[in-house]
Amino acid sequence: MKLWIYRPAQLLDAARDYKLYADGKFVTYVKRGQRFCVEVPDDTQTLQAKLSWCSSQPIHTNDISHGAVTIKNAFSHNPFLVFFCSTLFSTFGRKHYLKLII
Questions:
Q1: Domain limits at 41?
Q2: How confident is the model at residue 89 (pLDDT cuts 50, 70, 90)?
Q3: Distance CA 3, CA 74 (A)
């Protein structure tokens, strides 16, 4: 199965690469501002992005209708959250730190 992966050029995590996993197995690194096509096995059930101990919620591949996934930091759109709640997101909200958008 071919998937188009896109990561916007956000300021947070600019120097760090996200990792993409298919069914718990490493697939590729995703760099800031990168858009590319990746091949995952046809029997893949879930996709998940990770950054150190933080991650996204897993998404099911049968929900991906158009073959494109965007990986981004879940709270970087709100400056208030960036300045005052980033520690909260990287500790208690670590499983919601990244967001996969289909």
A1: 2-101
A2: low
A3: 21
